[in-house]
Amino acid sequence: MIRGIGVDIVDLDRFDRQVLRTPGLVPRLFAAGERGLPTHSLAARFAAKEALIKALGDSAGTSWQEMEVVNDAHGNPGFRLSGVMADVLRARGVDSVHLTMTHDAGVACAFVVLEGAS
């Protein structure tokens, strides 16, 4: 059963300007394993985190670092969830979090589906 869906889109130029203007933004929004990536990849990960929050309906009590975007052995994106975020998902009956991301034509986009038993 689908427990939630979320989508987000990020303007790459605007995101790049924000990162350059606000040096503390990257450490605040991204886990250590995400921080060395190119800006377009960070923008896609930001969109993924926003899409996850939208799928949940809120982000109360959670931290951006609790939503780390990782790739599996085949390069497919997914989340490594921890802390309050992992607890919230379990409490809401979410068993699986599906993620897809893309960046092209000046934008990054992410789509999240939350799944759980009925």
UniProtKB/TrEMBL annotation:
<dbReference type="GO" id="GO:0000287">
    <property type="term" value="F:magnesium ion binding"/>
</dbReference>
<keyword id="KW-0275">Fatty acid biosynthesis</keyword>
<dbReference type="GO" id="GO:0006633">
    <property type="term" value="P:fatty acid biosynthetic process"/>
</dbReference>
<keyword id="KW-0479">Metal-binding</keyword>
<comment type="function">
    <text>Transfers the 4'-phosphopantetheine moiety from coenzyme A to a Ser of acyl-carrier-protein.</text>
</comment>
<keyword id="KW-0460">Magnesium</keyword>
<comment type="similarity">
    <text>Belongs to the P-Pant transferase superfamily. AcpS family.</text>
</comment>
<keyword id="KW-0276">Fatty acid metabolism</keyword>
<dbReference type="InterPro" id="IPR037143">
    <property type="entry name" value="4-PPantetheinyl_Trfase_dom_sf"/>
</dbReference>
<dbReference type="GO" id="GO:0005737">
    <property type="term" value="C:cytoplasm"/>
</dbReference>
<dbReference type="GO" id="GO:0008897">
    <property type="term" value="F:holo-[acyl-carrier-protein] synthase activity"/>
</dbReference>
<dbReference type="Pfam" id="PF01648">
    <property type="entry name" value="ACPS"/>
</dbReference>
<keyword id="KW-0808">Transferase</keyword>
<feature type="binding site">
    <location>
        <position position="50"/>
    </location>
    <ligand>
        <name>Mg(2+)</name>
    </ligand>
</feature>
<dbReference type="InterPro" id="IPR002582">
    <property type="entry name" value="ACPS"/>
</dbReference>
<keyword id="KW-0963">Cytoplasm</keyword>
<dbReference type="InterPro" id="IPR004568">
    <property type="entry name" value="Ppantetheine-prot_Trfase_dom"/>
</dbReference>
<keyword id="KW-0444">Lipid biosynthesis</keyword>
<feature type="binding site">
    <location>
        <position position="8"/>
    </location>
    <ligand>
        <name>Mg(2+)</name>
    </ligand>
</feature>
<feature type="domain" description="4'-phosphopantetheinyl transferase">
    <location>
        <begin position="4"/>
        <end position="82"/>
    </location>
</feature>
<protein>
    <recommendedName>
        <fullName>Holo-[acyl-carrier-protein] synthase</fullName>
        <ecNumber>2.7.8.7</ecNumber>
    </recommendedName>
</protein>
<keyword id="KW-0443">Lipid metabolism</keyword>
<dbReference type="InterPro" id="IPR008278">
    <property type="entry name" value="4-PPantetheinyl_Trfase_dom"/>
</dbReference>
